[in-house]
Amino acid sequence: MEKITTDMLPGLFEAVAAQFAAHAELLCEMDSKMGDGDLGLTMRKGFGGLPDILRQMGEADLSKLLRKAGMEMTDLVPSTMGMLMGTGISYGGKALAGRTELDAEGLVLFLKGFAEGIQKRGKCARGDCTVLDCIGAAAEEAEAVFEKEAEGDLEEVCQAALQGAEKGVEATKQMTPRYGKAAVHQSVSNGTADQGAVAGLVMVRGITDYIVGQ
């Protein structure tokens, strides 16, 4: 696959939603130890609702569509992670202003914008043991491959993003949490991946499923 057009976005997020449905139980189990225990259900509901949200909007502009969809998601699942993910999508869309298709460079911009949205909404930084550590690393790896490859192959950039996301999740095992219950119960979280970062990885896996599997 070389590009994703506006009409393909529902299919893209259906692949993401499928990953969250498959990992809902795992995310809930992780969250029960360091959060409220509903992360998997929240993510399954939020991303599961996105395809229909996108179809019903009737918006032809790629950037506007993602920006609006992100805002709709925050209303659908008004939890901390729901707001972070929704804001990430909106900022990712904002970074695509003027573009009609999501190509290799567009994916890099989307991920960087996504990370920026999380950082601003969550008032967090890399190293704070959050979803930002996953998405930030995914954006970095994707950008590195894009800049190295003159052709900017979308599938290669996507695979790099997935590898970066995996590294980001692994890195959280050695971080000291600064937010939520994980910050209070550090003895439980020590050596354990951040559940928010894992949710970020699940999202990137869904994107990869769609791009590489088509």
User: Span between N and C termini?
Assistant: 6 Å
Shape: globular
Strand numbers in spatial order across the main sheet: 1-2
Broad structural category: mainly alpha
Number of domains: 1
CATH superfamily: DhaL domain
**Can you give the mean pLDDT?**
91
Order of helices and strands: EHHHHEHHHHHH
Q: What is the percentage of strand-forming residues?
A: under 5%
Question: How many β-strand runs?
Answer: 2
Largest sheet: 2 strands, antiparallel
CATH architecture: Alpha Horseshoe
Structure explained in plain terms:
The protein is mostly helical. It has one domain: DhaL domain (Serine Threonine Protein Phosphatase 5, Tetratricopeptide repeat), CATH 1.25.40.340. Helix content is 74%, strand content 2%. It has a two-stranded antiparallel ribbon with strand order 1-2. Helix 1 (9-34) runs antiparallel to helix 10 (195-213), helix 2 crosses helix 3 (62-76) and helix 4 (80-94) packs across helix 5 (104-122). The radius of gyration is 16 Å and the shape is globular. The mean pLDDT is 91.
Key words describing this protein structure:
214 residues, mainly alpha, Serine Threonine Protein Phosphatase 5, Tetratricopeptide repeat
What does this entry show, briefly?
The protein has 214 residues and is an all-alpha fold. It has helices spanning 9-34, 39-57, 62-76, 80-94, 104-122, 131-148, 154-172, 180-184, 186-189, 195-213; strands at 4-5, 101-102. It has a two-stranded antiparallel ribbon with strand order 1-2.
